[in-house]
Every structure is written in structure tokens, then in C-alpha cells.
Design a protein that fits this description.
- The complex is a heterotrimer of chains A (597), B (175) and C (291).
- Helix content of chain A is 38%, strand content 20%.
- With 597 residues, chain A is an alpha/beta fold.
- In chain A, the strands form four sheets. In chain A, strands 7-6-5-2-4-3-16-9 form an eight-stranded mixed sheet.
- The longest helix of chain A is centred in the last third of the chain and has 22 residues.
- Chain A is globular.
- Chain B is built from five helices and two strands; from the N terminus they run E-H-H-E-H-H-H.
- A two-stranded antiparallel sheet of chain B has the order 1-2.
- In chain B, helix 1 packs antiparallel against helix 2.
- Chain C is α/β, with parallel strands linked by helices.
- An eight-stranded mixed sheet of chain C has the order 2-1-3-4-6-5-8-7, sandwiched between helices.
- Chain C starts with 24 loop residues before the first helix and ends with a strand.
- The chains are: A alpha/beta (597), B mainly alpha (175), C alpha/beta (291).
- Chains in contact: A-C, B-C.
- At the A-C interface, helix 1, strand 9, helix 7, helix 9 and helix 10 of A face strand 1, strand 2, helix 2, helix 9 and strand 9 of C.
């Protein structure tokens, strides 16, 4: 009796030399061609090559919100490496456990403390590979065959992928690998699962996009009209720069891989001063270095997009692990009263939207804007539906009219706080840009009253952002007493948790801000009006969004922070548990308030 | 350092020489105005007043020479440019200081007049045209005359007090 | 025959009154810059003038160009960003010895090796004037300053030598003690196609030493021309630069007779080559399409 499933979470681990991540990538690419949605995350040891290596692939017939919880299928090419990944590859009582029989571990003696997987398959993976290709290097291809056979997926897709990948290696190698794949399928056929599970075919097998957060961020920048990128390599953001080094020239733009982080953003500031849409990307340590320039762009009122792909900190921290602890820095870094808008994507798909909007906000308000991505989103591959670019508006900075150029004052105090901005080359628009405080004409000043006016101008101009309801995702029952708030990659976990909680009968609603700062008071107030309890879920020790909200808003008494530092991803089930606790807490409080009979 | 570039004195015509003289005065006037502005910004009013006075002098002289040029040569295009000369009569940047006394300011003017005089003395033998020779001699004498005026002013100006500005002024400010 | 519009020095003078102390060497540099720009003939609105922080970094505001008085030590990266964004602009960078060779020192070799068509003017006065007289990287060893009351224990950097060693194709030095010479090297530097460096011995009248003032400079200075130096001789230039600190040589130390392609020229070329391969921006996501 075969059950079908619409969702499958596969986790695989081995050593770097086994090509396990490569297999994951083939799987995802093949899934994309078959029309599935997919999400793949990778995890490694700290060696550059040949360390332990793993990936998680989640396939679905519908949108994938997060990498999932416990594995449906686990593949261990060797146990030592598999176990190094601990909670990142969680095996449960529902998992189908596959491992190379050559490891010599008996199926009832698995080194998985306290866990008994649903089914266990010691497969002679290495042997099969050797028989098919003469070497056990094709183990990863055998694994693909096993998965294809057992779950009814990606057969054609993998074959096409193999052909593409191995074309250069000659016919013999290609055929050998195809054999390896086939024999994996055959093994699966002759050793069926006790509880067979096949994946349903996706309803629409239309074209999909396969990309990751970094690449799509760069693509969004190009779409938005970015003409300059200045930056420096740093994990996990380097890919943003790399895509732009391949593409931006085609659009008449330029990239500078600068000598350091400061020079990178400095060049971007210069390009913005010269009138171009301009960008930089980095991670935490780079943000710290770029702080001074962010302040400069703020007082000089220059548009600039700064992408921070957050990684675990502080300082060098854990470069390959995700965290959400740079929010304070994003909002408050740079000395002085230097506010700036902060946006955060929640998925690969909305990284496109958020990046485009970041450019719009930067240009409209003549300000640096920070995009807080995180390593999770930036480096996971997702298969997503194509994005209709025609629905996006693209904003250009307000430029002075010929009349205004007759007696131009760059920092003219207008009602909106936004003054038309010229750039070198524009006749009559000559002005002195500076980090020093200045009057309307850009002349340096030390006057308290002018400083007050100018500071007010710089704050006032951002006020309309507080009304941007469109930069929030709200789901669930409008009048629910329980709230779930989250941002960045954690939001994907929480969206799934919301569904699970509501299925259990909890009355919950979800708020996910894309706009983290300025705080859109009205939106929060309306959302929290019905709320008596809930949780703000995020990956940081301090629960930074929760605290920033507390700083600026009156929050419902029962709203708590559910937070912990990075590399400890949340699972939907534990978020649901936290919501249950909040519900109980609410009941108890309500009970205490009732008069005793 | 008075510098002239690209001028062939042997071939210098009267028109060119008059134009040169006008530009020399113009440069000097601008420099004195610049000095006056600096003195005003740096709260050294007496020196400022004197430099404004000198700027006025230079302007008057310039206007005179300009009128002569117009009378003799009308609107004929100028071949001599400001780019060809540096600090012939204009005092050098280094000459001024914050809180400088009126006497010090006068000495600046005196040195500048001396420099201008020296220029005309040095140039005279190289000049070919008779009219130019005459003009240079005239200008040379003007400088001497100016020097005497300045010296006379210097006599009238009270001597520097034992207590100088520098003794009383606040320390410089870090910015 | 079309003629370029002609400019006078006054066209580049802004209304902002300099805060520099009367007698400051930077006044000379400013005048020389006005002259050089007038001679070069680009209108002020096509000129971007970037500086860092310091007394000398105030200079862009005293010109009518698009000025950018940015943050300490970072004029060069910003200037390069401007030049790459719009290579048609005339881009100048300026600052003091601390701005350029202390905090900004890390940017100098890279600006030079990239060879953008930018002119960098450093006003070297061997002191930190704006902050009240502290040691600077070019202060001589043993100098007593606000932060070296017992005398500096450090050897000074040698900007000319560094810049020559980094491979700058145009290196010159000037002083306001010789205004025509200064204006001349600045003009030449601006005209030179590539990264050009002008070191100006621009004395500080408030904190500088007596030996550094204009009067003393006049007595000491020697033109490289009078030494018979050939600016095409890079090695001799390096040798002459080694005596910076003891000798005051003015003029062009080195001028590469075969200017290499500038960064902006190379970038322009690349944009032209690759421009035809561009997906329309609206279809950029096709980069990721899986069929």
C-alpha cells in the first residue's frame, strides 16, 4: 500500500570528497525541471575541502516555507561525518535511514542515541558504484538512484543533469554514471520500503527558477537599475558581488572589488554622489567597518543600498552559520542621530522584492538603506515560481528642475524633508557634499539651530515609511488573541508553525515585517489590538526585534521573546509549543481575573 | 616670487605692456582684498582696514591704466593673460598672520611695492619699445612713490606695544 | 574651428571664506588649483573634488566644483567610485599628510595600481593642524609636538618614495614658495592621463616648525630641472625622492612617457564589449530559469 506525499525532507552527509552536496544540487535542479518546489541548505566542517559535508533537500508540490524539521529520509555515506551534524540532520521515528553497508554498522546498532528510525537500509552503496563504474566515486550518483527509485522522483531530470554535467568527460564516463544511477533505482525496486512513499507529481510543471538569496539579490539590484557595486569578499555575502562582476558591465555599470570593506562602501558612496544607483554587500564584520561611511551617507543624504548577510557573531563568530543578531547594529550603528531604514527578506523569492524596494526607498528618501538578509536565505538554493517583474515600480531620485538650478540649494528644507539632488555633470547643481553639518547650501556650520533644522529634516523625510502597510505580511484570524511575530529566515518556520497551530485550534495570527525600521507604529498597533499573548521568534541572544519594539511601542503584556543565538534553527513544532504555552498562560490569567465563586 | 612666463620683453608692445600693468594691479588688488577678508574673518580689524585701503589704491591705479589703454588702443583683443604672471606686485600668501599689527601690515605693503619696483628695474633693460620703456620708468617711479607713502604711514603709526596680541590671545582651537 | 570656453581663476573661486590661518600654505595651493583648472578648461560643474578630513581637506568647498569633503582618510576610494560611475568627469582628490599616509595609507597603493585618471594633491605640513598640533606621519624623528612632548620616536614616512615605489605614473612636488612652479605641476598632473600625485610642502603657520615655513623653503628649494633631472628616469626619481626631508626638490620627479590605459578607459572598453550580451532588465531572472 503506497502512500503519496506532497512533501519530502531529505538529509545527506558524507565527506567533502563524496560529492554529497553535488548530489543535492543535482537533485534540486532535477526537481526544478520536474516542476517541484524545493529548498536546499548545506552545512560543512571548517576545512576548505575534504571536511565533513552535508545537505538538506526539501521537495514539495507547493511553496516551501522552510527547510523542514525531522528528516523523512536520511543518507549517511559514513557515520562519523553524519553524526558531526547533530541537530542539523535530525533523525526521528519517522525517518527512513539509509547508509553505506561498508561502514559495518548493524541496522539495530545505529549510533543514534534514543532514536529508532522507521526503516533502516544498510545499502552496499560503494559496491554498487564500483560494479557500475569501476570506482566508488560514483556513490553519490547511486544515492540519487536509490532516492529516485524509492520515492518516484526526478528520474528523467537526473539523467538530463548527468548528461549536461558529464558531457565533457566523454561517453564512457557518462554511461558509467548513468549505470550507477540505474543500479541505484534497481536496488530500490528490489528492496522496497515497508511503507512505500512516493511523491505526488506537481500540479503545474511550468518553468521554475533555481537560485539562492545572494544571486537573486544581485539580480534584483540589476533590475532596479543599480549601476555600481563596491565591496569586498566576505562569507556569506561574496556571491552577490560575484554575480555583479559577471553581469553589471552589460548594463553600463561597474564593479569594484576594493582593497577593504571601507574602500568598497566608499566607492559606492562616491558613485551615488555621481548620480548612480549604488550598492555594497557584506556580513557582520564588514558592517562594523562600514559604519562610518553609513553615517556619512546619512548626513550627506546620499542614496545607498547596503546588504548585510548576517552570520553568527560577534566578531569573526561563525562565518558559515546564520543568525539574526545584527538588527541593533543595522538600526543604531553610526554615531549621532543617524536613522536609516532597515528591510529584511524572509525567503529567496522575497529577497528580490525587498532588494528592489530597498533601492526605491534609498532613492526616494536619499538615505542609506540596510537589507538584512541572513546566511540561511542567502546560501540556500530554492526552486521558486517565476516572478512577474512587471508588477514592480522603480523609483529614481528627485532631481532639480531647470528653475531650481538657477539658484540651487542642495539641502533646501522642504515640507517633506526631501530636497532635489544634483550630481557632478549637472550644470548649476554644483554643491559641497560633506560629512560636516551644513546649511541649506551645503556650507559647513556649527550652529545649533541649523543643526536642529537639518537633523529634523533628515528624520522627517523618513516619516512616510511608518505608514507602509504593504511592507508587512499578516496572516491568520484578524481578531486572534495570540500573536506570532518573526522576521528573516525564521519567518518561514513561523509561517508553517502558524498553519500547524491553527490546525490544532489555536487562534493565532502572524505578523512578519519586511520593514524593520522605522517602526510602523500604526501597523503594529492595529495588529496588537486584539492580542493578549504571543511570541516574537528570532535567532539572537537578546531577542533584538522584540526589544526594539518594546523601546518604541506599548506591547501586549503577554507578548514574550522566544529567542536563541544562531546555528540553532527553530523548528515549527517548538514554535507551536511556545504558542500553546502562551495560550495556557492566557487562560490562567483570564481565570485569575474572574471572580471566584 | 614675482614670476612672469611667456613674455618676450624685447618684443613687448605698448598695448601689451599696458595690459600687463593692468593685470599686475588687478592681481595685487585681489590679493589685498583676499587678505582683508582673511583679517576680518580672523578678528584682526586694523590690518583688515589697511588691506582694504591698499586694495582701493591698486584698483585706482588699475582703472587709470585701463583708461589709458582704452584711449590708446580701444577694444583691441588682449594677448597678455593673468596666467602669465604670479605675484608681481601682489604680496605673497605667506606675508600675513592672524593678529598682525598695523605696522606689520604696512611692512607687507612696503615689501610688495619693493618687489614691484625690483621687477620694473630688472625688466627695463630688456625692453625694446621706447613707449614701453617710458611706461616702465613711470611705473617704477610710482612704486617708489608708493613706498614713500607707506613709509610715511609707518611713521605715523604708533609703535608696537610691549604686550602683543599673541601674548593675550587664546590658544588655537582643535576642530 | 571650435574653441574651448575660456575660464579664469576667478571662475573656480567659491563664496565660502577659508577658515585657514592667514599665511597658511594651503592658500597658495588653492590659488594654484584655480589657475590649473582655468588652464585645463573644464567647467566647474564637470569637476568632482573629493577630500578627507583636515585643514587642507577643506579645499573643495573653496572651489566652485562639486565638492565632497568626506571622512578621514577615505578620499581616494570615494574619488574612484565617482570616476568609475562617470568617467567623463574631471576627478581630483586632496588631503593632508595624515589623511593620506596615516589613516588613508592603505588606500594609496590600490588607487595607484588601478590607475584611474585622478589627480591626488597632498598638502604635507608634517603636523596635524586641525586637531591642534599632534604628530603626523611625516613629522621628522625627534620632533616635539602635542603628542610627542619628549620628541617623536618614529621615523617619518616618505610619501614621494612610497608613491614612486607603488608605480605611480606621474609624481611631482611643489610649494607655495614657488607659485608658478606649483600651478604648473598641478596643471600637468591634471592633464596627465592616469593617476597623478602632487606632494605640496604646504607649511602650517600655527604649529609648523620654522624650517618648514615659506621663507626657509625659498632658501632651500631646488628645482629638479636645475639638477638636470630627466622625468622619464624612474630610478633616478626614486633616488632623489629618498632625500625627502633633507632636500626640497620641486618639479616633476617622474612622468611615465608611455601612459598605460587608465582604469576608466579599460572599464569603458569592457562595457562596450559586454553591452550587447545584456538580458533586458525586466527579464534578468532568466539567469536562473530551469526548463
Amino acid at each position: 500500500m503506497t502512500t503519496t506525499t506532497t512533501d519530502l525532507v531529505i538529509g545527506m552527509a558524507g565527506s567533502g570528497g563524496d560529492g554529497i552536496v553535488s548530489a543535492g544540487e543535482s537533485l534540486v535542479a532535477a526537481a526544478a525541471r520536474d516542476g517541484y518546489h524545493a529548498m536546499m541548505t548545506k552545512s560543512f566542517g571548517s576545512q576548505i575541502r575534504g571536511g565533513e559535508s552535508s545537505c538538506r533537500v526539501r521537495l514539495s508540490t507547493a511553496e516551501v516555507l522552510n527547510p523542514g524539521g525531522a528528516l523523512d529520509v536520511a543518507v549517511a555515506l559514513n557515520w562519523e561525518d553524519f553524526l558531526k551534524f547533530g541537530a542539523e540532520l535530525p533523525v526521528s521515528g519517522g525517518t527512513v535511514m539509509i547508509y553505506d553497508a561498508a561502514t559495518g554498522v548493524a541496522p539495530d546498532q545505529l549510533p543514534l542515541a534514543g532514536v529508532k528510525p522507521a526503516e533502516v537500509f544498510p545499502v552496499p552503496i560503494g559496491e554498487i558504484a564500483r560494479k557500475a563504474t569501476g570506482t566508488d566515486k560514483a556513490r553519490n550518483t547511486v544515492v540519487l538512484g536509490l532516492l529516485s527509485g524509492w520515492f518516484g522522483i526526478v528520474r528523467e531530470g537526473v539523467m538530463r543533469g548527468l548528461r549536461k554535467k558529464l558531457a565533457k568527460k566523454g561517453q564512457a564516463v557518462l554511461e558509467a554514471n548513468e549505470r550507477a544511477f540505474q543500479q541505484g533505482i534497481e536496488y530500490a525496486a528490489s528492496h522496497p520500503l515497508q511503507t512505500p512513499r512516493t511523491m505526488e507529481k506537481p500540479a503545474d510543471s511550468g518553468a521554475k527558477l533555481l537560485t539562492d538569496g545572494n544571486d537573486i539579490c544581485a539580480a534584483a539590484a540589476l533590475f532596479a537599475g543599480c549601476q555600481f557595486f563596491g565591496g569586498y569578499p566576505i562569507t556569506p555575502s561574496t556571491e552577490v558581488m560575484q554575480l555583479l562582476t559577471r553581469e553589471i558591465w552589460k548594463y553600463g555599470g561597474a564593479v569594484l572589488q576594493a582593497e577593504d570593506e571601507i574602500a568598497g562602501i566608499g566607492a559606492a558612496v562616491g558613485a551615488s554622489f555621481a548620480g548612480k544607483k549604488s550598492m555594497t554587500a557584506t556580513s557582520g564584520p564588514g558592517m562594523s567597518l562600514k559604519t562610518e561611511m553609513i553615517g556619512l551617507a546619512t548626513i550627506a543624504e546620499l542614496p545607498l543600498v547596503i546588504v548585510n548577510v548576517q552570520r553568527a557573531g560577534p566578531s569573526t563568530g561563525m562565518p558559515t552559520k546564520s543568525e539574526q543578531a545584527d538588527l541593533y547594529q543595522a538600526i543604531f550603528s553610526a554615531h549621532g542621530d543617524a536613522p536609516r531604514p532597515v528591510l529584511a527578506p524572509t525567503s529567496v523569492s522575497d529577497t528580490f522584492d525587498v532588494t528592489v524596494e530597498a533601492f526605491n526607498i534609498a532613492e526616494q528618501y536619499q538615505t542609506p538603506v540596510i537589507v538584512l538578509s541572513d546566511q540561511e536565505i542567502a546560501q540556500r538554493k530554492e526552486v521558486i515560481d517565476p516572478i512577474d517583474t512587471s508588477r514592480f515600480v522603480r523609483v529614481d531620485r528627485l532631481r532639480p528642475t531647470p528653475a531650481e538650478l538657477e539658484s540651487y540649494a542642495r539641502f533646501h528644507i522642504t515640507e517633506s524633508g526631501i530636497s532635489p539632488i544634483s550630481h557632478p555633470g549637472m550644470k548649476g547643481g554644483n554643491y559641497l557634499g560633506a560629512g560636516i553639518e551644513h546649511n541649506e547650501r551645503g556650507e559647513p556650520t556649527a550652529s545649533g539651530s541649523i543643526h536642529q533644522q537639518m537633523t529634523d529634516k533628515r528624520f522627517r523625510k523618513l516619516l512616510p515609511l511608518r505608514g507602509r502597510e504593504d511592507l508587512f505580511r499578516i496572516e491568520g484570524d484578524e481578531n486572534a488573541p495570540l500573536a506570532l511575530v518573526s522576521w528573516g529566515s525564521t519567518a518561514g518556520i513561523c509561517r508553517e508553525a502558524l498553519r500547524m497551530a491553527r490546525a490544532e485550534g489555536l487562534r493565532v495570527k502572524l505578523l512578519v515585517p519586511w520593514l524593520l525600521y522605522p517602526i510602523a507604529e500604526k501597523v503594529y498597533r492595529r495588529f496588537f489590538a486584539s492580542v493578549r499573548a504571543g511570541v516574537v521568534v528570532e535567532q539572537s541572544q537578546q531577542g533584538q526585534l522584540y526589544r526594539v519594539l518594546r523601546m518604541e511601542l506599548d506591547l501586549p503584556r503577554g507578548l514574550r521573546s522566544f529567542c536563541r543565538p544562531g546555528a540553532n534553527p527553530f523548528r515549527p513544532a517548538e514554535v507551536v509549543a511556545a504558542l500553546r504555552d502562551a495560550a495556557l498562560d492566557l487562560q490562567r490569567r483570564a481565570h485569575h481575573q474572574q471572580p471566584q465563586e | 616670487m614675482a614670476t612672469l612666463m611667456g613674455i618676450d620683453f624685447a618684443a613687448l608692445s605698448l598695448k601689451d605692456a599696458l595690459d600687463l600693468a593692468v593685470l599686475i594691479e588687478e592681481e595685487a588688488k585681489e590679493r589685498y582684498e583676499d587678505f582683508a577678508q582673511q583679517m576680518e574673518l580672523h578678528h584682526t580689524p586694523e590690518a583688515a582696514r589697511f588691506f582694504r585701503f591698499m586694495a582701493g589704491n591698486e584698483e585706482r591705479h588699475r582703472a587709470e591704466l585701463s583708461a589709458r589703454r582704452l584711449a590708446l588702443f580701444g577694444g583691441e583683443p588682449r594677448r597678455v593673460t593673468r596666467g602669465m604672471l604670479f605675484e608681481v606686485e601682489a604680496p605673497e600668501f605667506d606675508e600675513v598672520r592672524v593678529f598682525m599689527s598695523p605696522r606689520e601690515a604696512l611692512r607687507v605693503a612696503f615689501r610688495a611695492e619693493e618687489k614691484a619696483w625690483a621687477f620694473f628695474v630688472e625688466a627695463a633693460p630688456r625692453v625694446g619699445d621706447e613707449g614701453v620703456k617710458e611706461l616702465f620708468a613711470e611705473l617704477q617711479n610710482e612704486e617708489v612713490h608708493h613706498q614713500r607713502l607707506v613709509l610715511a604711514e609707518l611713521e605715523k603709526t604708533p609703535p608696537e606695544s610691549a604686550l602683543e596680541h599673541a601674548d593675550v590671545a587664546d590658544d588655537p582651537v582643535a576642530q | 574651428m571650435t574653441s574651448l570656453p575660456s575660464f579664469s581663476a576667478k571662475d573656480f573661486k567659491s563664496d565660502l571664506k577659508p577658515i585657514w590661518c592667514p599665511g597658511c600654505g594651503d592658500f597658495g595651493v588653492l590659488q594654484a588649483v584655480y589657475r590649473a583648472l582655468a588652464a585645463v578648461g573644464r567647467p566647474a560643474h564637470e569637476i568632482a573634488f573629493v577630500s578627507g578630513i583636515g585643514c587642507s581637506s577643506r579645499i573643495p568647498g573653496y572651489t566652485t566644483a562639486y565638492g565632497f569633503n568626506s571622512v578621514h582618510g577615505r578620499a581616494l576610494p570615494i574619488a574612484q567610485g565617482i570616476k568609475l560611475a562617470n568617467p567623463d568627469l574631471l576627478v581630483l582628490a586632496a588631503g593632508g599628510d595624515g589623511d593620506g599616509f596615516s589613516i588613508g595609507g592603505g588606500h594609496v597603493p590600490h588607487a595607484i595600481r588601478r590607475n584611474p585618471d585622478i589627480t591626488y594633491i597632498v598638502m604635507d605640513n608634517q603636523i596635524y593642524g586641525l586637531t591642534k598640533g599632534q604628530l603626523s606621519p611625516t613629522s621628522p624623528k625627534g620632533l616635539k609636538t602635542a603628542t610627542s612632548g619628549y620628541g617623536s620616536l618614529e621615523n617619518p614616512v616618505n610619501p614621494l618614495l612610497y608613491v614612486l615605489a607603488y608605480g605611480a605614473p606621474f609624481v611631482a612636488q611643489g610649494t607655495p614658495a614657488d607659485m608658478s612652479g606649483l600651478a604648473q605641476v598641478i596643471e600637468e598632473a591634471i592633464r596627465y592621463p592616469g593617476f597623478s600625485f602632487v606632494n605640496v610642502q604646504s607649511p602650517c603657520v600655527t604649529y609648523g616648525e620654522e624650517e618648514g615655513q615659506v621663507k626657509a623653503q625659498k632658501a632651500r628649494m631646488k628645482t629638479l630641472q636645475s639638477l638636470g633631472h630627466d622625468p622619464a628616469d624612474q630610478l633616478r626619481a626614486i633616488d632623489l625622492a629618498r632625500s625627502s626631508g633633507t632636500e626640497l626638490y620641486t618639479g616633476v620627479f617622474y612622468r611615465n612617457p608611455e601612459p598605460a590605459p587608465t582604469l576608466d578607459a579599460l572599464v569603458r572598453e569592457r562595457k562596450e564589449q559586454l553591452g550587447k550580451d545584456a538580458l533586458p532588465r525586466e527579464r534578468i531572472l532568466e539567469l536562473f530559469l530551469q526548463r
